[in-house]
Amino acid sequence: xxxxxxxxxxxxxxxxxxxxxxxxxxxxxxxxxxxxxxxxxxxxxxxxxxxxxxxxxxxxxxxxxxxxxxxxxxxxxxxxxxxxxxxxxxxxxxxxxxxxxxxxxxxxxxxxxxxxxxxxxxxxxxxxxxxxxxxxxxxxxxxxxxxxxxxxxxxxxxxxxxxxxxxxxxxxxxxxxxxxxxxxxxxxxxxxxxxxxxxxxxxxxxxxxxxxxxxxxxxxxxxxxxxxxxxxxxxxxxxxxxxxxxxxxxxxxxxxxxxxxxxxxxxxxxxxxxxxxxxxxxxxxxxxxxxxxxxxxxxxxxxxxxxxxxxxxxxxxxxxxxxxxxx
Length: 327
Ligand code: UT7
Prior knowledge:
The protein is of the alpha/beta class. It has 2 domains: 3-173, Peroxisomal Thiolase, Chain A, domain 1, CATH 3.40.47; 177-326, Peroxisomal Thiolase, Chain A, domain 1 (3-Layer(aba) Sandwich). It is built from 11 helices and 13 strands. The radius of gyration is 19 Å and the shape is globular. The two termini are 19 Å apart. Oxa(dethia)-CoA (UT7) is lined by residues 29, 33, 37-38, 113, 152-153, 156, 219-220, 222-223, 226, 256-257, 260, 284, 314-315.
């Protein structure tokens, strides 16, 4: 079976910054608390007229430009998101239209913060099966529009942004997706959810009054499960690939909390110099956080051919996932 690789990256974040000091004026919080508990200093907020597919299309266009590929060549577009413009049509179909990728199939994936790696696993399988040769995978979120700006336990955490990668067949010796692991535990779904707005509890005056259309999270419980799950996940990924952590040149974790990122790196014995961190600038952008960090690493020249890169994420569902790349 042919192997697949990431051939280009791109990203886009909205211009508007919301700092911890701004948040101090909105809810009962402090820069000190947010920095100490999360590592976040500021996050980006989409403009009123910007939705998921707007950010996604910009990130996708940036990956296509890096590769020098025309959008008309794309076979498939996958968007990982929990904040699509609308339930129907999918954000991916809107991106297809915006990019003019007329021949591409398009669909969304919802695996919350693990969504990008889930989408990468699907792209990897399509390319390895030979069905598609040029797949655009995008993580894009406008979490600011599903955030309850009166709830200090969540509103300080999230930000908006998008990241994209192109997945294509890998000629020998030019990098590859070595392995992708995806997992879920639906029994703990209530730890992180949007209670209303779906077919269980459709939107009503009552649900809006109660704020049930906003994201809710049992932060502390989620934190504990995340740390434990991610430790096992990354150790298993290394073990099953016969690698030592010293062979990982860059760890790119989902950016949910600097304390979670540090705990995972410490468990692996990877020094923070080899960990991609941008949570201070962007907060938690769910499915977008890993591809944004990957794109930054590529543009900063942090990745060299043949080096191993480990991606890992944990989020609502619950879901968790890892991917090992040979760059
Ligand atoms: O991305 C997908 C998965 N998400 C995650 O993995 C996130 C996991 N969770 C977390 O990152 C952390 O649990 C949080 C950052 C959300 C919260 O940190 P924590 O250390 O778990 O704090 P906590 O929820 O236990 O709250 C500690 C205290 C509470 O006050 P009392 O009860 O001790 O008096 C909260 O009311 O901090 C209070 N608090 C705040 N204080 C100031 C909660 N939010 C705030 C706030 N500003 N924004």
